[in-house]
Amino acid sequence: MKKIVPYLFYTLLFVFSSPVWASEIGLHDATHTNHQHHQAWQDIHFWEGAVSGLLFHELGHVVIGMSYGGKPQLNQGSIVYPNSAFSRKASMRVSSAGFQAQWLLSELSFSALKKHDGMFSSAYYQGAIAMHLAISTAYLLRLKDMPTSDIYAASKTSNISREQLAWAVFLPAALDAYRLMGQDVPDWVSHLSVGIKLAEVGYIWQF
Ligand SMILES: [Zn+2]
User: Fold this and answer.
1) Ligand 1: distance of its center to the CA of 105 in Å?
2) What are phi and psi of 73, to 5 degrees?
3) How far is the CA of 15 from the centre of ligand 1 (A)?
4) Which residues neighbour 48 within 8 Å (Cβ) at sequence distance 6 or greater?
5) CA 112 to ligand 1 center in whole angstroms
6) What is the pLDDT of residues 132-173, one digit of tens each?
7) Among 145, 146, 160, 152, which Cα is nearest to 200's?
8) Rounded to the nearest 5°, which phi and psi values hold at 148?
9) From ligand 1's centre to the CA of 136, what distance in Å?
């Protein structure tokens, strides 16, 4: 496993490099109501949100890992727990904690965007959601097959294939991409995304 962090940023750039998508993001930027064409990713707050999204994912691993007595160390962009013997139950929770954290942050961000409130600018929340999309996409494309990655670990613990787990992560992210970038997105999209996230969190904690 090498250079997970740069790979995530490449995926983020790839996902948001399409001019069509980028302009859709612009339409949803509540801070710019004067119809001036503005693209969220040109705003520094977007990148602050993206970095926060990544840190929040890692924080999820650290908090849950430490709660099971693990001593987290940073190894080439991913959190590892050398010399920690987690039970299957603990291992499932620790390896999925990053995704759970980003699901939580994405819902908080959507809520802030919808109500036009929150401590940060809308570009910040868009950046946080964008990182959630990038991480989920990167897992499906490549990270799932890296031996130190979350899905690799969760697959070994659960005996569910890496492919299946990557789709389980990607599915709500795909709905979230539509929520973030689509126009006149129907309510069921949010409900379905939240429902899938809750079902998966439920599965993880009863594992
Ligand atoms: Zn992770």
Assistant:
1) 14
2) -135, 145
3) 19
4) 120, 124, 127
5) 24
6) 999 999 999 999 999 889 999 999 999 999 999 999 999 999
7) 160
8) -95, 10
9) 10
